[in-house]
Design brief:
This protein has 109 residues and is mostly helical. The protein has a single domain, classed as 5'-nuclease (Rossmann fold, 3-Layer(aba) Sandwich). 51% of the residues lie in helices and 9% in strands. It is built from five helices and three strands. It has helices at 9-16, 22-35, 45-58, 64-75, 89-96; strands at residues 4-6, 38-41, 79-81. A three-stranded parallel sheet has the order 1-2-3, with no helix packed on it. Helix 1 (9-16) crosses helix 2 (22-35) and helix 3 runs antiparallel to helix 4. Residues 103-109 have low confidence and may be disordered.
Length: 109
């Protein structure tokens, strides 16, 4: 194993939904798997990602089958939920920054 990466929900959403920069997010996942890097996530991670899928369904960007497939895909991702968040926030932001585009002060997942 080669270290740990704390995954942000906005990056994980790109793994299961077709979004801008999904290719970049998938390359991060592929590299982590090749390097045997542990993927860690905060306790609220599951709620954030499934909420993003549900929001897309509710707004009509996904049909029911696509939403189910996205959640199924998410459930099979190799991440560990941490009881206590010990992620390095600064490092997490550095990794996630190329994958997020701020369009306003309040940014949804």
């Amino acid at each position: 194993m080669n270290g740990t990466i704390c995954i942000d929900a906005s990056v994980a959403a790109k793994w299961v939904l077709a979004e801008d920069d999904s290719e970049l997010a998938n390359s991060l996942l592929d590299q982590a798997m090749r390097d045997r890097t542990r993927l860690a996530a905060p306790p609220h991670f599951v709620a954030e990602v499934t909420s993003a899928v549900y929001r897309r369904l509710r707004l009509g960007y996904l049909v029911r089958e696509e939403a189910i497939e996205g959640v199924r895909k998410f459930a099979n991702l190799p991440f560990d939920l941490m009881k206590h968040v010990r992620c390095n926030v600064r490092r997490t932001r550095i990794i996630a920054s190329p994958l997020t585009k701020r369009t306003s002060r309040f940014r949804p997942i």
